Amino acid sequence: MSEGLKHRIAGTIVLGILGLIVLPLLIDFADPAKIDRTTKIPPAPSIQPTELEKVQRPDAIEVTSSLQSLFDGGSFSPVTEESKSFGLDDNKLPMGWFVQVGSFSEEIRAVELQRQLSVDGYKVFKDKVKVDDEFRFRVSIGPKIDKRSALADKAAIDEKFGTDSMVVRHQP
User: Fold this and answer.
1) What is the pLDDT, as a whole number, of residue 139?
2) Is the CATH code 3.30.70.1070 the one for domain 97-169?
3) Measured between alpha carbons, how far is 87 from 94 in angstroms, rounded to an integer?
4) Where are the domains of the chain?
5) Which residues have a Cβ under 8 Å from the Cβ of 120 and sit 6 or more positions away?
6) Where on the phi/psi map is residue 115: left (φ > 0), alpha (ψ -120 to 50), or beta?
7) Which of 25-29, 69-73, 112-116 has the lowest mean pLDDT?
8) In CA terms, which of 10, 67, 88, 127 is 20 to 30 Å from 28?
9) What PROSITE patterns does the record tag this protein with (predicted)?
10) Checking phi first, is residue 92 left (phi over 0); if not, alpha (psi -120 to 50) or beta?
11) pLDDT (tens digit per residue) in 42-53
């Protein structure tokens, strides 16, 4: 037997063995699963369609005098420059509202509360004020243009921190 023939026979045997290994992976020889094609849905009931009456649209709509008096243009007064603008004080400066959360004699406690409020997402600041010959550290959040939002923040802070904060108007 020549060398070339031996190589061809060995190659054929190797390819046959590889085919026997790979072929079962590629082809599924199992029987397909039997599917029950009978239905258990009951037949649809017979429904008779009903006729709907057509709605008649009125030819004209009457305007009543009571409605007309509600929208009488003569009862409105024009807006003038003297009208007080929303959110402005007598000096035409915007009114600001602060929520004073606490007043502490120790700066460390004020800084800790300031840090907690800042972590919660509030704009917080600390003031040093002199009250009765001693310095106090006030922690406040704000300013808020709308008093309602300041009151809402006060309620949330009082509930979370167990304080009795105050809503204070900004005095320029």
Assistant:
1) 92
2) yes
3) 6
4) 97-169
5) 160
6) alpha
7) 69-73
8) 10
9) SPOR (PS51724)
10) left
11) 888 998 888 888
